[in-house]
Amino acid sequence: MRPPLIVYIDTIGVGTAATIAAAAARRGVATALICPPGAWRGARGPLARVIETEDFALQTLRRLLARLDRRFSIRGLCSLFGPFRADGFLHGTVATLAAERGLVHSPPEALAAATNKFLTRLYLGVAGIPDIPYGLASDEASLVAMARRIGYPVVLKPLTGVGSSLIFRCRNDDEARDNWRRALRRLPLAFYEQLRMAPHTFVTPQGAVLHFDPARSMLVERYLPGREASVECVVTGEKIIPLVVHDKLGIEERPGVVLEHLLVAPPARFSSAEVKRLRDHAVAAIRAIGLRNTFCHVELRWLDGEGPRVLEVNPRLGAGCVADSIETFAGLDVDAVCVSLILGRKLPRIRRRRAPRHAMIFLFSPRAGTLAKLDGLDAVNDLPDCRVVRVMHEVGDTVGGTMEEGFLAGIWMEARTREAARRAYARVRRLVDIAVA
Question: Taking 70 as the threshold, does the pLDDT of residue 44 lie above it?
Answer without folding.
Answer: no
